[in-house]
Amino acid sequence: MSVGEDGRASLRALAHPVRLRMLSLLTGVSLTAAEVARELGITHANASYHLRNLFASGLIVAAGEEKIRGGLAKRYRYEPGKFTPEQACPAAAGELTRRAEGRPGGAGVLGVAEVWIEPAVWRDVRDRIAAALHDLHAASRPPGAAGTIRTSVTVALFEMDDPR
Known about the structure:
The chain is of the alpha+beta class. Helices cover about 45% and strands about 10% of the residues.
């Protein structure tokens, strides 16, 4: 897998686990460095440093400024589509993408998400994906059976611990 300069910058930006957690926090909401620091239990300076790295790599965008105690605080947010599966897990995504390239019927679906959602939404999505996996298994036929296509499915869904 060839990674251009933008890809290298993104990989470097994601080389720290705090930055991955920040992307999760910034999905669906814009936050200041102080808010990120409180959520993650890190210093304001540390949060600012990591946010600057994510911003410079293009993985997050500026979402405005607000006056706080006589100063200006920048708000940042993550825009879906900027953070690709290849950036999240280069080896696994690279191999899955390689295997899917040039296949009849399209490349399939590959995605990565670590997001905060309402419990009802989580249960609904989890149950629909579980049902789809059940349907795939129920529909499976012997290898090479006439009228079948060979497919690959990998799914990992789980509720995470609240890091606070």
